[in-house]
Structure formats: C-alpha cells, structure tokens
Design goal:
The chain has 173 residues and is mostly beta strands. The chain has one helix and eight strands, in the order βββαβββββ. The mean pLDDT is 87.
Length: 173
C-alpha cells in the first residue's frame, strides 16, 4: 500500500531522453527535470501495479463524491507505456533538481556531468494520484533522485564516422 509521501525505488534500467542535470525548457520556461526509464516487463510490474492501484483509488473517490453520476470517468494518459519489444517505459518528472548519485550510492554526481540517454540508472519517486477536470483521473511519478550505475556522456552527433570502403560506380576507377 502506497501513501502520498512514500518514496518508491525502481530497478536499474536504461535512461531515455534524460533531463536530470539541466531542466528541459522546451514546453515550460521554468524547466522540468524529467527522464523516461526503460525496464523489462518483469522489472516494471511492481510500478505498473502501484500506478493502477492509485488510479483505481482516485476513481473510487470520484464515485463516492458523485454516487449518482453514471457517465464514464475521464482518464488521463498513463505515466508508462508498453513498447513493441515488450519492455516498459516509465515517465518521471519534477520541477526541482533531483539528487544524482554515483554507483556507490553515497557520492553525488557533480553538476558539470551531464547524464545522456543510454545511461543505466534507477529512480526514486513518489507516485501521486490526481483528478483534474480538464485532464481526468491519473497518476504522476514525481522524480526524487537517481542512482547512476553506468554513466554515458557526450554526443554521438559530434564524434564523426567510422572509415568505410568507398563504393564506385560501375566502370569508373
């Protein structure tokens, strides 16, 4: 049973599109720290069950408030997605800079280190249910901190290409 202030920890997975060192300001000028975490279906079962239970409780609360309402309850998008290969991508976000720990779990990662996609991390978060008229009933995963087991830094786009054999048109030397 999860309460509103309980912090939950995921298994280690692959960080996708992480904005953990620097906030993402594309759609919010104040910036949002966020990361998508790719886990195996087995590793994500606990998180999916927690999220679905929180949403079920929010729906039950809505029915208690409006017992005569027979309309379908509007549901917000889930904070996870099951992708083609069967793995699960969880979506975490916060307005506040999360604490980032190295593989030992005791040392903070310096602010000048940028965590790139492909890093192997685990996330501590608080799952919070909500009921908003415009969005519906849902659950958000509030990012608290991350532990990095394998840090990927740099940009593939700036590393150049590997040498290859040229392909010449037939008859040309």
């Amino acid at each position: 049973m999860i309460n509103k202030t309980q912090i939950v920890e995921t298994a280690f997975g692959e960080a996708l599109y992480p904005h953990l060192s620097v906030p993402d300001t594309q759609f919010n000028s104040e910036g949002i720290y966020q990361v998508k975490l790719k886990l195996s279906r087995a590793d994500a079962e606990k998180e999916m069950k927690t999220i679905n239970n929180i949403i079920s409780k929010e729906i039950a609360e809505e029915h208690k408030k409006h017992p005569g309402n027979t309309k379908l309850t509007k549901k917000a998008p889930l904070p996870y997605e099951i992708i083609e290969d069967g793995s699960v991508v969880l979506k975490f976000k916060t307005k506040f800079k999360p604490k980032l720990y190295d593989h030992t779990g005791t040392n903070l990662i310096p602010d000048n280190k940028i965590i790139w996609g492909g890093s192997e991390i685990r996330v501590r978060y608080t799952p919070v249910g909500y009921n908003v008229a415009s969005t519906g009933i849902g659950c958000t995963l509030r990012l608290a901190s991350c532990q990095v087991r394998k840090l990927v830094e740099g940009s593939v786009a700036t590393q150049g290409y590997k040498a290859v054999e040229p392909v010449l048109a037939e008859g040309k030397q």
